[in-house]
């Protein structure tokens, strides 16, 4: 429990005030070497699945399966965790931090699923694809 104590001690006003644990969906969509970690239940995922057309994969691992499937989550990528309300994302964020995932690569998607959906409209996706092509 010392690790949890130390992690919680590091989450002070500076940590939360600077939003070091969050990322806007639009920023994560333009990240290199990134994945989305969808921690919603299988039923939620099957009802409203997200499949992205560009370079960022979406991995669905329900929160209750994270301990058994943690090896499927790459430690060397920028991970944007999301669920429908933010509660499960926060729990998974703390869990992954306790299991050696870097705070630099781990973020909670600000606004969760609801904030991600508007970023997936055809016009915004086309803008991202064009932007990516022009930077290559």
Instruction: Give the fraction of residues assigned to helices.
Output: 40-55%
Total helical elements:
8
Q: What is the average per-residue confidence, as pLDDT, rounded to a whole number? A: 84
Radius of gyration: 15 Å
Instruction: Examine the secondary-structure arrangement and name the CATH architecture.
Output: 3-Layer(aba) Sandwich
Number of strands: 5
CATH class: Alpha Beta
What is the distance, rounded to the nearest whole angstrom, between the alpha carbons of the first and last residues? 46 Å
What proportion of the residues form beta strands (DSSP E)?
5-15%
Structural class: alpha/beta
**CA-based shape:** globular
**Name of the CATH superfamily:** Rhodanese-like domain
The figure for the number of domains is 1
Walk across the major sheet and give the strand order: 1-5-4-2-3
Q: What would a concise description of this structure say?
A:
Helices cover 44% and strands 14% of the residues. It has 136 residues and is α/β, with parallel strands linked by helices. The longest helix is centred in the last third of the chain and has 14 residues, at 122-135.
